[in-house]
Design brief:
Elements: E1 6-13, E2 20-29, E3 34-43, H1 49-60, E4 65-71, H2 75-78, H3 83-90, E5 94-98, H4 106-112, H5 115-126, E6 132-136, E7 139-146, H6 150-159, H7 168-184
Parallel strand pairs: 1-4, 4-5
Antiparallel strand pairs: 1-2, 2-3, 5-7, 6-7
Helix pairs in contact: 1-3, 4-5
Length: about 190
């Protein structure tokens, strides 16, 4: 992958009691150079994460972004992202990368929701591609991809993961989302 190829990493941060989660989009080049940031929010426990990420992407107005990487599939307490809808909207491959092995979200969704709220989340969640385990620098990550095949998804994740198991666009986005949340909450300068 060329060093200047750009990916947008999206990660989120919220604290107990928050009704909104801060989403950060960090544009990083494959050579690890940060090249732009945007912020948005979505409802904690809501169903608006897909739309919020679309808004974040279009607010950046970056035609040079080639890939969209998401930290997980259900940010902000089970606000499940529809990777297919997101891929269609942004016209880029979308990869969801998670960092823990799990049997999936169905039982957790059943524990937390019922009725129409559960049905909507299950419908979205079940429509997503399966996760594939990928070993990267001695760590395991689990990847869902829409818009690229499994081999391309693996190359993309590896290209943006210079060390450790977290792709750099997601690592930087997570740090920025946390800092923005603390700032929004009125944290002291040393906390940001």
């Amino acid at each position: 992958m060329k060093p200047g190829t750009r990916a947008l990493g999206v990660a989120e941060s919220f604290a107990d009691g928050d009704d909104r989660s801060v989403l950060c989009g960090a544009v990083l080049r494959a050579d690890r150079t940060a090249d732009g940031f945007a912020f948005e929010s979505c409802a904690v426990g809501g169903t608006d994460a897909t739309a919020a990420i679309e808004t974040l992407f279009f607010d950046l107005d970056r035609e040079d972004v080639q890939y969209l990487l998401l930290a997980g599939i259900a940010p902000a307490w089970f606000n499940v992202v529809d990777l297919h809808d997101l891929t269609a909207a942004v016209d880029r491959p979308v990869l969801s990368v998670s960092f823990e092995s799990s049997p999936g979200l169905e039982s957790a969704l059943r524990d937390q929701f019922s009725g129409d709220a559960l049905d909507e989340r299950l419908r979205t969640y079940r429509a997503q591609p399966p996760r594939r385990r990928l070993a990267v620098d001695g760590d395991d990550v689990w990847v869902r991809a829409v818009g690229v095949d499994a081999d391309q998804a693996e190359r993309i994740v590896r290209a943006y993961t210079p060390e450790g198991g977290r792709p750099e666009p997601l690592r930087v986005a997570r740090l920025a989302a946390r800092a923005a949340r603390r700032f929004r909450a009125g944290g002291a300068d040393g906390d940001v």
